[in-house]
Each structure stands twice: as C-alpha cells, then as structure tokens.
Fold each of these.
Amino acid sequence: MTERVPAAVAAVSSIVILVYACATAPNPTPTQQPAAGQQMPGGPPGDPRVPLTDSARRVRDSLNAARRDSASATMLRSIAGRENQPAESVFKNIKILKGVPAGRLVNIMNMGFGRSLGVSCGFCHVPGKWDLDDKEEKNTARLMFAMVQTINRDYMAKVPNDRGAPPVVNCFTCHRGNAHPIQPEGAPPGSRPPGAPPGSGD
C-alpha cells in the first residue's frame, strides 16, 4: 500500500503540472496566410526555388555530396585502367565533353555540376543507367553547358583583364548551390515587369 501512494502522487502531480502548463501557455501567434490568388514570398510551398536556411542548405549539401562521392568512387573503380581514355570511348551516349578523359568527366559531374547545383547524380541521371536520356534535366544540362561555353568563348574572352587568364562563368555563377537559380527579391532599377514592352521600366 505504501508503494502505491508515491506512484499515485506522482501521477496526480504530473496531471496537475500538465493542466497548469496548458492553461498558462500563450496562444500561438497565427501565421499570416496569403489572400486568395496570392503566394507567400519566395514561391509556393514546396517550391524548389525557395531559399533554404544556411543550416538546411548545409544538411542538404552534405547528404548530396555523400551520395555524389559514393557514386563517383564506384564509377572510378569500375573504369580503373581506362580513366585516361576519352570519355566517349569508356561511357555510352557522351554528347558533350567529348575528348575529356573519362576520370576527369566523373569529377566534373561530381564537383562541377553536382556541387554547383547542390544536387546528387539522380537529379539528371537514371541511377545505374547513366546513358539514358529519360530525364529532362539531363537535356537541360547539355543546353546550359553549351550556353556557358558560348558565353566564355564569345564574351568573357573579350573582357579586358590585366591579371592573366580572362574571367569565366560556370554553373556556380548563377546556381550558387541551387538546382534552379534563386531570383533576388525585388526588381533591379530599370527592369520591366514580365510581359511589359521594352522601355516600359526605363
């Protein structure tokens, strides 16, 4: 009987504390909901273009880096002895980066494309079936790579630079670790609204 009394007192005490805490807790601050037809700043919920917090970005980046590093290490082991051969002689369906050594191609995919966009290999590729063109992101990456080459060859090479090699752009220039470049808040001076005729924002 004496053992039941402390247990009963503890149970009653816990209930009293719980009731008191609930009764004295401040009411939650309601979050502002957008009016019908409006979106919250940054885009709709789940929008991949909504900026991440620094801590969320670090977690995402470290997970994606681990996935990329693992896939790259596996790929490099599978091509051991052929890593210096042209990529198109080692891998199927190479449309860009022809002539690049196969080992370097793997590192470009990992450190260049993957890190610059903050994604893992499966963002553009069907894992294990790397040669397939089933994902639109892979075709988009090819177009973006051609764009970067054109910008560097036709424009950046003409920028005066007294420090040596001309400046270059790459995936990170715009993506900054995001799969889709983040648009800055607010329009820059002189820009025009979408769909407005030229000169309307000047």
Amino acid sequence: MMYGAPLTVSGEFLPNAKSDPDVKRYLTQLRDSVGQLHSIPMSTHDTPRPSVPNYHCTANIVFIRCDARRKSLQSHYDGPYELICPGDKSFQLLIGGQQVTVSVDRLKPAHLVQVAQPRNKGRPRQITPTLGKEQSPKSRITTRTGRAVITPSRSTVLIVSYM
C-alpha cells in the first residue's frame, strides 16, 4: 500500500456476483423471524396514582402547613388539629369548632407525647426566704480586728420545705 495509490480489495473477500440467491426463501425466512418478535408493554410514567401514606390514615391529630409568607421565627405549620374524616386526597379537620376540608399535601401527622400530671396532695408548697443558720438578723458578725461584716441581700438562701 502506497501513499496516494487507490485502495484495492482482492477478489477473495467479495462474494461471487454471478450466483443467484433464492429470493423467495429469503423473504419467507425474514417474515418468520419478524413474526416471532413481540412488543414490550409500555410503562406509563405520566399518570401517577394518588397515594396517601399510611401514617396519615392512622393519625388522629395533624398539623397544617402554612403556605403564606412567614415572619422570622414563625412556625411552618399551624395546629395541632383533630382529624375527623380521612379521604382519598382530602381530609376533614376540626378547626375552631368548624369542619374544614384540607388537602393531604398540606398535612403532617402530629406525634404528641402523653405526659401524666401528678396529683395535688394537700396544701401547696411554701417557699420561705431565710438567712443562714449561723446568722440572725439582729446579731452582727465581726472579724478578728473588730470590723462589722455585712452580707449583701442577694446572697440569701431560699429553703424549700416539702410538706
């Protein structure tokens, strides 16, 4: 092979042009192989099914997302509100004594902790400010040199008595 010389292919690589292929046999074989092909079912990505998460159906109390502009440090959700009737895409809530229909997209289940309140027994506790045991309000404490020691009023100790 030389630069600028035309490319030539030897005759061994090319089929014999004089041989006549059987066209009818070739067409029937092609039709049979195409007939055996089956189409694959298409996936439908454009029709989403509305689905409600399970935690929305089991929640009794929910928060509602506030879509309006918020001030700084204002919560994203209002509530909690009581859930009356769940639906497919909208729930009915009890807000201010009225039934209001709200979309599922705006709801968030409220996970509230039930805390038992202790019972009140007897009289309430009395908190009395008292001075230390070694001090009495009438006596003065003096140092070795004879100077009077005055304690500031904010250093008084509060003693809580449990009855």
Amino acid sequence: MPAAKNGIKKHGAPKAKGSVRAKSGCYTCRIRRKFISLPSNLESYRFIITVWRCGVARIQKCDEDRDAQGNCKSCVRLKLQCLGFGPKRPEWLKEQHTKLRADIKSFLAGNGMIKGHAGTNSRDSNPDQILLLRQEDDSMSSSESPDARNVDLPMTGGEYSRNTSAMRDEPWNGVNNTYVDAAYTTEDALELQLRHESPYDNDNQAYDIMHYPNSLPGWSGPNSTRSNLAASYNLLLTMPDDDVYLEPASSMSSFYHRLMVPGGSADELVNHYLNVVVAMQFQLADKIRLPEVIYTAVEGDCYRSAARLLAFIHQRRQAVPSVPALQDNTPRRQYDELKLALSKGSSYTEDEAMASLTVISSFLFDGGKGEWQWWLEVAFKYASTVLGRYMSPREALMLCTEKERFLVKTAIWFDVLASVTTQNPPLFLSIIRELFAPETSGITDLFESVPAELSMMTVMGCEGRIVWALAEISYLAYWKQRQMSKGLLSVPSLVTRSHPIELCLSEPLRFSTTQTHFDEARYRSSEIFRTSARVYLRAVVSGDYPNVADIAASVQDALTVLNDMNRYCTAQVRTAVVRSTVFAFFVCGCLTDNQSHRHILRTQLAEEGSVGNCSALVQLLDKVWNIRSRMSRHDPVPWRQILKDEKMLLV
C-alpha cells in the first residue's frame, strides 16, 4: 500500500511542516507517545495521532533533560521508570513494547493523568510510588506480570499473546485496551458489557468508555467526570516502529466526529472487537474497504451484540485457553437470546447477516465446533436476497454495495469450506459455478485481471477458480457417495468428472515480487489452497489412501509451498497464512503417513496459540493419527467421518 494512503513514511522521506519524529526521547517516552494511535479515517484513510492534555491537543514530548540518576525528567514527573536513551531500541525492548505501552497507559489512567479519566489509585497512599517497567534482574522475556497472570478477563496492563495479525502495518491491527476490575468475575463483566445496548435489553442508555478506565460499565468514582474525548481515543493500533510521523495538533479537530465509534456506542467489548479482533477475524481482507464495512455495520444492534460475544470469547480463550468460552452461562445466555431473535423471521436484514457471520467466527475463535451451520443458513438466505435483485450473480457483485459484496463473498467462503465438514454440496454451488467456473464464468485469466468486485482474493486470500474447485470437489465427493450407496458408481465417469477440476488446479498463481506484503500473504494462501485442494480431489477419486502415489505427490507439493512460505516470508505473513489455511493443514495431515510431514504441519498449527481453531485441529489431527496407528496401512483413513462427527469448521 502506498505510503500516502496510510500516513506511514519510509526512512529518508521529508518531514511535513510541524510534524514530530516519534523516535526522539528516552525509550519510555517513545513508548508512551505511541499509545494514542488512532484508526484510519474512513475518508482519507490516514492516521491522526493526538492526545488531549490540559484541554489542548498535543503530545507531551520527552524533554530529554536528565536528573542526577540519568532519568529523563518527563518520566520523573509522570512517576514512570525511565528505560534510558539510545538511537535504536534494544531487542528486549522490541519484544516487550506492546506490554509496556499497555502498562504505562493503565498506570497513567489510574492516576488521573489522562483527561477524562478519573484516577482510581490513591496517590496519597504512596506518593513516591513509580511504575517499574523493568526489574534489575529481569531479562525482559515474554513472561507476564504477576497481576496479568491472575486476571480472567480482560488483563489490565497485560498483552494478549497472539493479538497481532500479519498486517501489523495496517490500520486495523491493534492491541488490547480493555480495562476491567479484576475483582469482578468473568461472567459479571460479560453480563454488564453484553447487556449494554443489547436489542433484548430495555435499558439502552449509552455510556462513554473513557468514563471508567479501570472498571466496568456503570462504575462511577466520587470525582469522576464524563470525558469529552472522542470514543476513538481508546482505539489502539500497533504502529510500525521508528517510522511514525505525528501530525500537527491543529489538524486534528475536524476528524474527531468521523473517528468515533458509530452512534456513540463505544463499550469495552465493542472497543476490543474493533481494535483487536476484526484484524484476526478477517486477516486477509482488503484493509482499505474493511473499515468502511465494519464501522458502518457495527451501528446495528444484532451485529454489535454478536461483536461483543466474539470479543469476549477472544479475551476468555486468551485467559483460559483450555476451556470453551461458550460453556459459561452468561455468554451462552446471550448467544441463545441472539439466536432466538433471529429465529423469529424467514428473511434477514443486513445487520442480522453481519451478526450471523460474526457468530460463526465466535465458534471458530472458541475452537471451531458448534451450531455454525444454522448461522451459515442465515447468511445464505440474506445473500440470496441480495443476489436475487440482479440479473446475474456477476452483475450483483459488480453493482451491490460494498457491505453487501463483503457479506456475499464471506458467506460463499464459509459455505465452501463448511461443505468439507458437512459432506453435502455447498449451498452456493450454482452461484459459484456462474461466478467462478473457468469454462462458463468468462473469467479465464488468473488473479491479476479479475475485477476487484469479483475477486475472492481480497476477502479470504483465495482465487475464485480455487473456490470453484473446492466447491466442485465437495460436490464430487457427495455424488460419489450417492452413487456408491446405490451400487451405481462408474469409476471412468468419476475420473471424467474430476478432470476439469484437476486441470484448473494444475496452474500455479503468477506473483509479482513488487506486490505488497498483503498481496504476498494472499498469494501464499491461495497457493496453499490450490495444492491442498489437489490432495482433497485425488483422495475423492482414489480413496483416502495416503500411500497412493498421486496423493503422496500432491501432499509433497503442498508441503513445498508451505516450506517456501516459512523460508521467505515474515512472521506476520506466516501467522496470517497459517490461520487462514487450516483446511490445508488438516487435509494434508490426515492424508500422509510421513512422520516428518506430520511434525511440520502439527508444529506450525500448535504455534498459533489457543485462540481460534488451530489448537483444536491439532487435537483432531492427533485423534486421526491415533486411529490410523491402529489400522492396517491398506485401509483408508476415516478422516471425513471423524471431521463430520466433530462438526469442526475448517475456516
């Protein structure tokens, strides 16, 4: 993405008049000055960075004047430990900057040093207390503070271990900024937050999250005052280190109304959803169009309620990785109420469709199992309504609104991968054939020439032809099973039906090395889907026998693409690709007896942490391999039945 689009300038670029390099000052102040990054403006898509202090929009710079101990006097005044000076941050500080930034913000807010925040800490009780950021014997490893380890939801001053997407240089990437009193239980917190402006709650009084930095909605300290800051003040974003320019304070005021969470509905869970979870939910989506879709959609009651549910699940799985969040009574009750509300009609609104996709994501973030099929049917019915307004699916995607297009494409993608689990034809099969079939869609070239309106790459990182191939493979597997059950299967007919799909999957995607890291992540994802789809196809044709030569060869091809990604891509790109292609990891893992291949696939999935379905898929692979170890190598792997029984969604 060009620098002009996101406000990030490369080294050597001339500074705008009045701008300030974020690189100056001591390490502590450089971290402190970054905790007020704001999301991109919906019209200009530029970062506007500011803080209100003493009623004036400005950044309190490090004065670089040192006391007798070598501490900068800005840190002394703010009661922060000064971490020293230097032109380039040391490695230990780079690893810990996100956690330190959250700790600093929590400390300053708790002491009433940010306008609009009523201090919750008693400054008289220990006036000399300062925030220690590094112990003398601390190696600054990735370990958490004792406080952070003991808090269920959310972790004040802590850092979520896997909260960054591959797109950390883009506006939608964020870090945790939710403050909840640890004295409250998880369900207490959720009850208060999920109920806020719920479509099922009679009390719809809005509140400003800045009113209570260290407590739950409804809390009011004796001297607290309502903040006059825009709600977006608290939408934190991870900024590229040492390359950030700060805009002059005089340019800020005209943007505040555009940066607020729509409708003034900023609560802690919505804030966390917009700030952290969206980037993980749609890791490969277009980061220019996505804010337009999300920020307008979150005004809807159903979507906002679903967003709160997803945000809670993300936080809870970070705190308690081994326990599904939806086992808690409160989130389950909120889920049931949301489902009940949508069960009352036969047609659905845009708001309800966005909610349905978000609830599906909630199941994914909670391990991948659940009633996602019911919600997928809601999204399908809404998408069918949108598509039915036009002469053809192609015309619909070209002419509908950005939000409608996003909904339709996302629903198609979920549906295609769901068909692997359900072992039924995709609901959108006829639509997919019209849109993406190489012989009939009119789209014969690869990704580069596909109009953005018709491209699946900018939503889920998979070419339209691969989406078509995956849908047709699922249908072919369904057709084969039906023919076998009737005693009518013709193997030559099966091979003939598979040939166009095999041909489609034989051509790799051309990729220009001049493309952005966004395009690289999508390219890598699409290639992994292409090669793993061949594994899926050949298993349908030949049976689920890992030692069949063409199945083993196709698994090797997929591993080669994966190894290339590991060798040449950044950690951020790898994370986005792995989380987006769990289908490939599972299918290839099930259909190989090669222990080295299994180790590579399992290790890479396990490294992605407990949020999402990666860890659940590791457990499912272990189950498949355990069953396989007790079988004859001449028997097929029963991976399809295991997947269907577990109701695991491979998204």
